[in-house]
Amino acid sequence: MANEIGAAENSQGYKTPLVQRVYQQLWTKISAGDYELGQKLPGEHELASQFLVSRPIVREALGRLREEGLIYSRRGAGSFVKVRSQNRPLGFAPVETIADIQRCYEFRLTIEPDHAYCAALRRNQAALDAIAVALDLLHDATEAHRHREDADFAFHFAIAEATNNHYYVSSMQALKDHISVGMKFHGVSLMGPQSGLAGVFSEHQAIFEAIRDRDAEKAKTEMRDHLAGSRERVFEGKELDLSL
Q1: d(C-alpha 240, C-alpha 243), whole Å
Q2: Helical residues (DSSP H) of 33-175, grouped into ranges
Q3: Tens of pLDDT, residues 117-171
Q4: How far is residue 94's CA from residue 118's CA, in Å, rounded to a whole number?
Q5: For residues 80 and 174, what is the distance between their CA atoms, to the nearest angstrom?
Q6: What average pLDDT score do residues 220-229 get?
Q7: Across the strands, what pairs with 170?
Q8: Which residues pair with 80 in a beta bridge?
Q9: Could you tell me what percentage of the chain is helix, strand and coil, using 3-state DSSP and rounding each to the nearest 5?
Q10: Nearest Cα to 127, choosing from 49, 16, 218, 9?
Q11: Confidence label for 20 from pLDDT (cuts 50, 70 and 90)
Q12: Distance, CA of 150 to CA of 169 (rounded, Å)
């Protein structure tokens, strides 16, 4: 937590990765209409818990939204949506079929290995810490013989943020619900007499270590292998023919 506070209070202010992540996600929710005009946002404590960051991080992100005129604050009452952003976030049609899950994996395989590659080259300590927080949650879930889709997505999203490329971040945010569906199926595939949870955690750990070590090519390979393995486990090697 001390690292998060320090990151928020350095000379770069709200441009630090953790603040940028909270800002981006709140901006996306406001733009998408998840928070309506005039609606009160959750309090700092609730947002900090939701985004797995400290309250100073949330405070910085809310400050940026106020500066941009998206929200306003009432003393003692909280923050409220002032206008809806005119810049609509990227969106995708909802997952409706098993084929859509396969398509989502296919798309992720075209972008997320590059996320890992760029993250290894560009990450700073705050970005690495955010990935580590999600990895710790995955470790605790694995120890409890559980699969946590929220921690799994947080891990992949933190890697996208570490690229310092908002196009990657926006794409992952838009894909969140789609990815979560695939992760639920993946979680089911890992349970049973011969649990695959430990092996999948090792895959996540290998990605983290490559990014930590700034080994971009290894990070890219580990991410590609992880996603391909996940797809293999979900479909049991029996992918659908998507030919027209």
Answers
A1: 9
A2: 44-51, 55-67, 98-122, 125-143, 149-162, 166-174
A3: 999 999 999 899 999 999 999 999 999 999 999 999 999 999 999 999 988 988 9
A4: 28
A5: 23
A6: 97
A7: none
A8: 40, 72
A9: 70, 5, 30
A10: 16
A11: confident
A12: 16
Burial-class residue 178 by CB neighbours within 10 Å (0-12, 13-18, 19+). Answer: buried
Using alpha carbons, select from 103, 91, 18, 104 the residue that is nearest to residue 53.
18
pTM: 0.69
Structure tokens at 48: 């900090």
Q: Say if CB 69 and CB 83 are below 8 A apart.
A: yes
Residue type at 143?
E
Residue keyed to tokens 């609730």: 46
Q: Determine the angle formed by the axes of helices 17-32 and 44-51, rounding to 10 degrees.
A: 110
Q: Residue with structure tokens 């941009």?
A: 68
